Each structure stands twice: as structure tokens, then as C-alpha cells.
Amino acid sequence: MVKGGNAIAEALVWSRFGAIRYAEATHVHLERKQRWSECFPDVRRLLERGLTVLATEYLDALFARKRVYSEFKRVITQFDVLATPTVSIPAPKIEEVLGNEDGDVRSVLTHNTVYASYIGVPALSIPTLKVEGLPVGVQLIADKFDELKLLEIASLF
């Protein structure tokens, strides 16, 4: 089991992921900009933020992603997959999230899944049990192009 992780890599993930996430989401949805008003407020704000990402910020984030992936590659070679909690808190009730999309709950809910998204590796969440009737999941993360291995291991649960 690997605990913690490289603090530099984690800092790079959090400081850089936004530039990629915002710019790429905006790029995908730009041709439908006239319909952004129909999106949830947090989604609309994400898309609008993408319009403000500088090319230098985006490129810095891409270069940082390579460094973070190198650290991940060093660790993943020791394992078939990495297992983490999908989220680090019990699942909130929907009314705790709706209307508070930019709040702390959303940030905590996405914290553990950002890493795989940022470095472009496959990950999936498996429901494992319920606590007070709400699901608890385990996220399995594999290396690039190891989707089949990831699915085979997930099928064992």
C-alpha cells in the first residue's frame, strides 16, 4: 500500500487541473454557447471560466500533467491498480448539493477523482456498501491503456 503521495505532484494537480478542465470543457461546448443559460449555474460558470484561460496557463498545465503522470507511472508499476475511496465523505443528500454547486461539498466530492482525470488514466468507481442507506464506493485506477485489466479486477467485486 502506498500512502500519501508526492506532495509536489498533488500540488501540481490542484493548481493546474482547472486550466485544462475549464479550457477543454469550453472548447467542447462553445458551438452551443447560446444554450449555456440552460445549464446548472455551476456548469455555466465552469464554461465561462474557460473563456478566460490563457494559452500560457493551459500549456503550463499540460507540461505539469506530464510530470504528475511520471510520478504516477513510478507508483503504478508496483501494482495492478490503485484503490482509493471514490469520495472522502459519506454521500450527501441531494438537497445539500443542489443550490450549493460551488460549495465545499462539491469540492470534497470530486477531490479523489481529479487525479485520474487530470493525468488521463482510466478509473472507475465500484459501489461496495451502504452507510445509512447511501452508497460508498471504491475507485480503481489503472495505467493508460490498461482498461481491460481494470474491468477484470472490477468484475471481482
From TrEMBL:
SUPFAM superfamilies: Amidase signature (AS) enzymes
InterPro entries per the UniProt record, alphabetical: Amidase, Amidase_dom, AS_sf
GO molecular-function terms, A-Z: catalytic activity
Protein name in UniProt: Amidase domain-containing protein
Domain of life: Archaea
Residues of the Amidase domain: 34-151
Organism this protein belongs to: Candidatus Marsarchaeota G1 archaeon BE_D
Pfam families assigned to the protein according to its UniProt record, in alphabetical order: Amidase
